[in-house]
Amino acid sequence: QPLLQTHATRPSRAPRAMHRLVYSDYSTIDWVHDQARDLARSYRLIQIPGLVGRVLRLLDACQSWIVVIAVGLATGGLAAFIDIISEWLSDLKDGRCGAGFYLNRKFCCWHVGQDAFCPEWIPWAAFLVGNDDPHRQGTVRRGVTWVFHTLFYVLFSVLFAFVAAVLVKRYARYAAGSGIAEVKTVLGGFVIRGYLGTWTLVIKTVGLCLSVGSGLALGKEGPLVHVACCASKLLSSLFPPFRANDARQREIMSAAAAAGMSAAFGAPMGGILFSLEEVSSYFPYKTMWRSFVCAMVAALTLQLINPFRTGKLVLFQVAYTRDWRHFELPVFILLGVLGGVYGAQFNTYHLWLARYRRKGWLAQFPVYETVAVAILSALISSGSGLTQLSLGDLLGNLFQECSEHSTDFYGVCDANHRFRSIVLLLMAAAIKAMLTTVTYGLSIPAGIFLPSMAVGACAGRAVGILVQAFYETFPTLSIFSGCTGDTQCVTPGAYAMVGAAAALAGVTRMTVSLTVIMFELTGGLAFVLPTMVTVMVAKWVGDWYDKGGIYDQYIALNQFPILPADTLNYTHAPGARIMAVSHLMCPMSELYVIPEFGWTVAYLRQLLDVTTVSGFPVAKNLLSLATPPGADMTAGPTHATPSSARPRHARHGQRGAMAPHHVPTGFNLRPWMQATPMTVDPTFPISGCLTFFKAIGLRVLFVTRRGRLVGLVTKKDLLHHLHV
What we know:
One of its GO terms (cellular component) is Golgi apparatus. The chain folds into 3 domains: 56-305, Clc chloride channel, CATH 1.10.3080.10; 326-344 and 376-558, Clc chloride channel, CATH 1.10.3080; 567-723, Roll (CBS-domain), CATH 3.10.580.10. The protein is 54% helix and 5% strand. It has helices at residues 2-9, 31-46, 50-92, 105-108, 126-129, 139-171, 180-187, 198-213, 221-236, 240-243, 246-265, 268-279, 285-305, 329-359, 366-381, 391-399, 418-439, 449-473, 492-508, 512-522, 528-545, 550-558, 601-610, 686-696, 715-723; strands at residues 95-97, 121-123, 586-587, 592-595, 618-620, 624-626, 656-657, 679-680, 700-705, 708-714. Strands 3-10-9-8 form a 4-stranded mixed sheet. The chain has a 4-stranded mixed sheet with strand order 6-5-4-7, with no helix packed on it. Helix 11 crosses helix 13 (285-305) and helix 14 crosses helix 19. The chain is globular. The relative contact order is 0.10.
């Protein structure tokens, strides 16, 4: 009330912008302070009269949209660059184009069929045995050709993976992995210096081209989100309203995450929902519109560049013209169950391997581990069969129908040997699952989306072939009554698409955004309902095994101080609604409470030297409360870890309020204080505190009784409470 009365009686007075030091590494930003600072900046612009003020306000309003459009253009351009270079490197393992070394196989052999012999494409083995049609070669010559083909394939694969691992280790260690878990943490307010830096952007882009081109079981979709956020950090820093305001930078990063997913799958609406559902902890209405524009611009840029020269944004875009039948719904539910089980088991075994990598001897040899995995993957992929294809080509062929293939496609479309086709598909799914488990988490840029979808697509296609064979064997059953006169009652390619969604949902626990992404990939509404049912079942089954997807579990593994997405589920726990904040708070007896006036720099340094705390409540007679926004109360000298011991803000020395007569005469702390902190009563429920921290982005919550300070609660306290 006093604050409102002050502004009502003195409307010309601008809001006071508190001083802020630069956020330290592994600390948490102060959302309230950054928003107040931006409000003060806007208020100063409003006070500028005349035409100059109008122009400055117009430019200020346009800056956000300029940044969003620039991020969308950069994301689409980088995605196209990665697509072109990675596909060229992937074909370079087999040979080169005689018409131009810079052309990949598709553009080099554009004038012939996909599987026809192309004299312009020169395999590396042709330098020794000649470049003849393999079908015209003798047995011995074909054997020699296969040996040299395998040798060059393995050498190039290992070389690409080795270079990517060395670049990451020497120049940008944050460029390794997918990056979505860290992006989610940064968007939650955590500060990781260098994670969104220029070197990280360069090494992530180049390393992603090399790692995808090496043929490892990884994808580029997740890392594209990290690339887009790095671009948003770099571009937004060029504009003053964003350069010194971390909260506003994170609003642009939310839009950039949507653009990254939009460019990865060619699904702008799915990218917006992905940013809302999976990574953003703060998603106001204005951020939704900015995400809409950013995702649209990224997809439009990729469409205009047209890197595949097919008019498609991704290699595995398909369109289904037939609808699904009611008898297929139980089979789709079964695919959801299998996807949930696979996702839970994959997360379990992969996280066990990730922990061993950090604590075992593998932590000392990340480059050698990458080389070993690359050799294993190359030896398996160099042979003929489904494992030889890249993940994009594999998904594109499995999603399509056999009528759209000019050949048998590795025996999958052979109607006379369906049992063999099912066995080959299941073997490919098992191999891809094994390779994905050991590949994801290497010290190179690597995503989990495409490998998980490939595993599910192989299993789904096998189930689709089995259902099709069952229908053709017993076409007169009553369950097939709706298939009269329809020779294509079952669509095995649709089973591959639904199986891919089920496996990805089981691993990541994505639901709404994943359904929309699959809808945009197929370009029709026919299979939206089966996809929704399958994804929901996969999430339920996966959550029955363990809570949280692979990214949430990586956040817990890295011990990042971010409240989990399912915080609201805590309110359903026994006694959670009635448990008061007094059971959780750090009491007054363990706090250093300092007065507002009379400080010197020397005494403040002495106070910091003799205490282990990282923040001090500032009070006047313990009634008027404030907290220094420059001091981080959520993270101490080390990481804020949920598994650590219960944090205390004073371990030794004098506790309680420090009397003013103990302090020498000097300056006051008012310019560094947040004068209107959030306070609650000791009887306030902990579930309400969780809502405050999650929705408002608080760093500290004061507990008062009749205006008198009795304790405080930090995000670290809440994390420890949830962990226990």
